[in-house]
Specification:
about 55% helix, 4 helices, mainly alpha, about 80 residues
Amino acid sequence: MERKTSQLFMHPVDEIEDDCPDYYKFIKKPMDLGTIRNKIDSGHYKTVAEWRADVELIWSNSLEYHTYDAMILITKDLQNYFR
């Protein structure tokens, strides 16, 4: 969450605001950093593996949906930083 580019992943995708009108047609299990933060704060995660799976889901969703190079590069950069 400390990187500026992570702000792109802080909230659930809004199909209108984020200009992704068909996002939920392709992405069946959305995830974002804000939801993960809420899950951490509420004690939802029982294992590190559960938390890690949700973070990885953010990256896989983004790479599955986006086709333009800038977003793919941002996603891969954050994914590599996370890993």
